[in-house]
Amino acid sequence: MQVPTHVEYERASSVDEALEMLSRAGGEARPLAGGHSLIPMMKLRLAQPELLVDISGLTELSYINVADAELRVGALTRHAQLLDSAVAGERLPIVHDAERVIADPIVRNWGTIGGSLCQADPSEDLSAVLAALRATAVIRGAGGVRTVPAREFHAGPYETVVEPGELLVELRIPLTANTGSAYEKVERRVGDWSVAAAGAVLTLAGELIEDAGIGLTAVGAPHFCAPEAEEFLRGRRAGEEAFTTAGQIAAEHSNPVADQRGPEDYKRHLAAELTTRALRKAFERA
């Protein structure tokens, strides 16, 4: 039987109280939201915090709204809430594409957006989505509030830039006109972690690509993105030739690891193919 080591537990009634609890314990405390990522790691003793600060009741961090041409999502928003959001689906279809293939309804009803991102799993879907969208993470601590681009949020596998005593409190996603987006994923079975996945965001100026965002997950892409492929696309005429070449560039700059989900060459092939498919669908939606 897998059981965690001994851990203290405190429940926060406000963000300020949660920050105080986390700061007091230093690097030995972890916030607990949905728990779908943290608890299994504790059972395997891959994570051994001395204190769990339960923030699941902080309703002030659960919201989806539009302000200053951005979609703003509270860190404690559940996956199911984001999937049900009409504004997210209409303005950012890539978000709904990804949420439909994240785990299963039970996990989506309880797991939180912030918890998924802070887990920083290399196969996490929303990390690639937010990288493609060039979102911004809002982090709050005793010293105030700071913002970090989503592409700089992850410091490595299972590591983020959130410091001890800080909390991720919000995600801000720009809403841009003449933009389409899509997410494509291959998984071994429904709800599984990605074998490979790609997200694409295209902003058009007539038939030309004004800007592009490409997010990749499970294929070893640094910071979950493909900047070389994005640069190739800017200023080019949208079409199959450009999309296919961009997919090949994205694959060339990925660094997949062979595991039980497949060998490196298969995953690199998927990176190219899924990037092309996502770009094609994003163009159709733009």
Please tally the helical runs, counting DSSP H or I stretches of 4 or more residues: 11
Q: What sequence of helices (H) and strands (E) makes up the elements?
A: EHEHEEEHHHHHHEEEEEEEEHHH
User: What CATH architecture of the largest domain do you see?
Assistant: 2-Layer Sandwich
- Derived from helix and strand composition plus strand pairing, the structural class reads alpha+beta
Q: What is the CATH C-level name of the largest domain?
A: Alpha Beta
* Shape, principal axes of CA atoms: globular
Structurally, the number of domains stands at 3
What share of residues is helical? 25-40%
pLDDT averaged over residues: 94
Radius of gyration: 19 Å
Indicate the low-confidence ranges by residue numbers.
none
Please provide the count of β strands. 13
CATH fold-level label of the largest domain = Uridine Diphospho-n-acetylenolpyruvylglucosamine Reductase, domain 3
* Strand order in the largest sheet: 4-5-10-6-7
Largest β sheet strand count, sense and barrel closure: 5 strands, antiparallel
How much strand content do the residues show?
Answer: 25-35%
- Distance separating the two termini: 51 Å
